[in-house]
Amino acid sequence: MLKQVFRRQSATVALLGVLLNLLGTAPVALAQISSCSDFQEVKDLQDALPGVGTSRAARAASQDQLWNAWKNTARKIFSRYLRGEMSADSFESCALTSEDREALRDLLPQIFFEESLSLLEKSQSSSIQSFMRILHERTHGNHLVLFRLVGHFRDQVPPTSSLAGVQRGSGSIFMNFAKIPPNEWLVILIHELAHSLDDRLQEAVMKFSDEGLVKELAVFATKSQDPGLLPAELRSRTDRWLMAGLDRGFLAEYRAWTITFQVYQDGLRERLWNPIPWLDSILAIKGPNVPLASFTLHYLDSNFIDPTDGIFSLPLIKRELKNVRNALRNAQEPPPLGNFTQVIF
Ligand SMILES: [Zn+2]
Questions:
Q1: How many Å lie between the centroid of ligand 1 and the Cα of residue 10?
Q2: Would you list the domain boundaries of the chain?
Q3: Which of 154, 178, 325, 333 has its CB surrounded by the most CB atoms within 10 Å?
Q4: How far, in Å, from the CA of 17 to the mean position of ligand 1?
């Protein structure tokens, strides 16, 4: 329970909530064009598969051919999605067998992800290039470890009702393409990848799960409500623990959104995507001379509500958290962006 406390629900409400509100809760209205024709190449090859009497080599060759046809199909599906020409469950009417569905389940995440990355790799912006470099370094080229795609079949239940997210344990992300407007796909992908590549987030998750400290604090908090009375050593441990909590919630969003804002603006200049009104309306608030990181920090800060359950219901902890957040708010410099510093500067 406690580990959930600093989850990023509040920042999600602040920013992705804006997105959901603007879109309404109904699924994105994509053009209802049937994409069954995308499967024709596969169907033709399936019908022509060699029979039992043919040589093993010939059978293997036609299986290879079929697999390549599946890949082409998956690419067509991705392009169709990006063009906004696909309904959320447009495959349901395409008479796919269970093996077909399995092939798609295996291939769509790979192809959606690979094609997305190759679009991003064409970028000339230094922020996007740096981001891609971090991605390659961290995954040693095996990007798929980070990625899950949902939304292609009704029976494939997304982990949550959100558009996208990161699984805290594994760091792997999921994206529901049935819910994400195609023009926002790459931007949301960058945002979710930023979470899963965030070194400070992984570290903070470890530091925050300090059950011993929580017990110690709970005992102290029943005796006093004034954080000033905490012994110096316990207070500094408490502050580090509270910072770890913020680092996996509020500050994780601060880092990921600073990167997302930067990448969004750079990609927009290159026409990697078209303007996204809800992002533009947030960025319009930023003064011309305000550094992006400071803007993001203060924008999120005003929307991020402190947790109030468990140990956070105790006045001593509430007050100390308020102190820690005030210190962040009033610091000369915004907190470091960790391994993403080079994306912004
Ligand atoms: Zn986020």
A1: 10
A2: 19-183, 199-343
A3: 178
A4: 11
